[in-house]
Amino acid sequence: MTATPTPGSNLLKPDDHALILIDFQSQMSFATKSIDAVNLRNNAALISHAAKSFNVPTILTTVAEKSFSGPMFSEITEAFPGQKLLDRTSMNTWEDAAVIDEVNRIGKERLVFAGLWTSVCIVGPTLSALDQGFEAYVISDACGDVSEEAHERAMERMIQAGVRPMTSLQYMLELQRDWARTETYESTTGIAKKFGGSYGLGIIYAKTMFGASEGH
Question: Of 12, 79, 121, 172, which is the active-site residue?
Answer without folding.
Answer: 121
